[in-house]
Fold Flagellar/basal body protein, PACRG family protein.
Amino acid sequence: MSARARDPVLGSTRSCQTSSSLRVGKKPIKAEEPTKPPKANAMAQRKMPATEFRRFYDRGDLPISVEHTASGGRIKWKIQPEQLDYHHYLPIFFDGLRETTEPYRLLAEQGVYNMLEKGGRKVLPVVPQLIIPLKTALNTRNPEVICRTLMVIQRLAGADETVGQALVPFYRQLLPIFNLFKQKNANLGDVFEYSQRRHTNVGDLVDETLEVLEMNGGPDAFINIKYMIPTYESAIIN
């Protein structure tokens, strides 16, 4: 058969093409490979924006300074903590708990402990204002910040016999991170400092804090902890 054949209608010639020589104008579309979903990485550290504590301190709006001693730096109060307006100052100091840079970390941590120690009945009315700074600090996923915050929660729960019970309605905001780090046992050694130096790990500190919350939270504490952390077992011996 001739390579060119006459079209009986148009009287013209056309090329005879076999199926093997057909070409498509566009390249064949390949099926897209499914993309793997990103890892959740729930324990990955979050970015920590500048704190209100740092902003107030840099402006000179906090009645504190650093006092240098032979054993290191410590907080120096220009006004005694018990004389301060707790509604204004205590949430600011709690916001500084997520600081990891000196002297902000030192001043915020020591300031919180001093105010809780001296505050007495002035602490209870401020509890609702402390939940967001505590939750923000826990949500950093930074083990150093989490451990510092857990220690403060323990001190807060024992600051007054009514404060521990006042924290119970806020367990749903605070305890999700407890549940996340409850089984984390990475030893942090001396990377953080409390009122006394201690070696611990995040998982053990979570368990210890839950026990403090239960013992200071009144009759409704255990059932609310158990709801958020099903693996928790009561520390109170009946």
